[in-house]
Every structure is written in C-alpha cells, then in structure tokens.
Amino acid sequence: MTFEVTMFIAIGIGLTFTALAALVRIVRGPTILDRMVASDVLLTTVILALGADMVARGHTDSIPIMVAIAATATFATIVVARYVKRRSEQDLPETTGEAEHV
Question: pLDDT grade, residue 91 (50/70/90)?
Fold first, then answer.
C-alpha cells in the first residue's frame, strides 16, 4: 500500500468517526445549542470529505457545493442563536428599572 492510500484510509476513518460522534450529539442533545454545534461539526465534516475527494481525484467540481454548505451552516447558526436569545429574553422576569422601597 502506498503512502497516499494509507493517508486516505486514515482520513476516511477520522471523518467517519467525527460524523458519527456529531450524529450522536445531535440525537442526544441535551440542549438546542449542543445540537447546533454538532450540526455545524457534521457539516464541516462533509465539507472536509468533499475537499479530500477533490484532492484524491484532482478536480475542483465540488467547490460550489462546499460554499453552499458553508453558507447554509452559517445562516442556520445565526437563526438558532437569535431564537435562543429571544427565548432567553422571554424567560427573564420583567423589570421596570426602578428599585423597590420597603
């Protein structure tokens, strides 16, 4: 086996392990932020797999797909962050800003 083949096998095993770990975290949670970080890791792993495929086969056809996945992940992260922020603001008790006198 050549060095290249050995490296691609190692890369494949590493990316597979990373994807499986991210899937476990997406399913088990426990919070929405844990799931969002795990989905970002999964999408990054997909981008890395596409990049490894481009290196192995010597093409650049996957670049538009990689850009679309990265843009989708960024947009989804922003949406979830705003959702969590609004939700946490609703959970806080409302204050008027004035101190109460006893």
Answer: confident
| Omega before residue 93 within 30° of 0, cis | no
Structural domain boundaries enclosing 27: 3-90
Q: How many domains does the chain have?
A: 1
Cα torsion angle, 41, 44, 46, 48, sign: negative
- In this structure, what CATH number is given to the domain that contains residue 11? 1.10.287
The answer to whether the predicted template modeling score (pTM) of the entire model surpasses 0.70 is yes
Q: Could you tell me which residues come within 8 angstroms of residue 42 by beta carbon, excluding any fewer than 6 positions away? A: 19, 22, 23, 26
Q: Is 74 domain-assigned?
A: yes
Could you read off the pLDDT of 25-81 as tens digits, one per residue?
Answer: 999 989 999 999 999 999 999 999 999 999 999 999 999 999 999 999 999 999 999
